[in-house]
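Note to self: keep these together.
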Amino acid sequence: MKKITFFLIAIIAFATISFSQTNYPFKVSITGDGKTPIILIPGFSCSGDVWKETLKVLEPKYKCYTLTMAGFAGVKPDTAPNIKNWISGIAKYIEDEKLVKPIIIGHSIGGVMSEILAADYPNLISKIIVVDAVPCLFALSDSTYKAYEHPDCSFMVNYYKFYDTDKFRASQKLAVTGLVKDSTKIDMITEWAVNSDRKTLGEIFCQFRNTDIRSKISQIVCPALILLEPSFKGNAAINKQYENLKTAKFEYANKGLHFIMYDDTDWYLKEISSFLGN
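Structure:
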């Protein structure tokens, strides 16, 4: 009888844990020996494994909460993928888990999400580190760009669904070669995209295209480290986009492309450690 009771309790506990996980639009991996919480948000289509090198440096001193967003890299998708819901979901997780003033690190779209979190929830966040992201990506190529309030994402969703797996893999691999210099990472990043939900890719890319937080970042009060790829250095359009972020420290990689955590790893880790006071 005692064994039966024990197993029933175990099953109920497991069910509770599984149910609680579905309350959030992401999968989370918790590692590290420290007390100070750090939340790491990967970029478009990427797995939380993109932070492996970063975690090796952080885990001895921090409690690390590494996310993979719903629909990316094999994680179960939301029925209605939405960046705003993802951000509010992270805020809810912080509150539910009683994480005290976590540091947020985000790459690409994850970097933009970090900035929105810091702007919308200033009392929750202590610091942010933004890895190669700008407040309005598509305004860089079009100075007159204006986001749609209610974009129709059906075209983008259909675009991502159009290709069969082999052709989609080929197209993604071609795109990735323009985002990372480290050739050993190309296949891995490509497979994250291939294993992502196509509807999620289309919806989120469309929403990201219609994200403009150039004014919103004025609401950020916490310290911010902005790490950018070499091609952005001296770019007047980049400086203009960030003119409203008064708490930022800007640093530019010496080499590489969008995945600067891979292309200029030593510099990247040194900048993060210095900013965190390690």
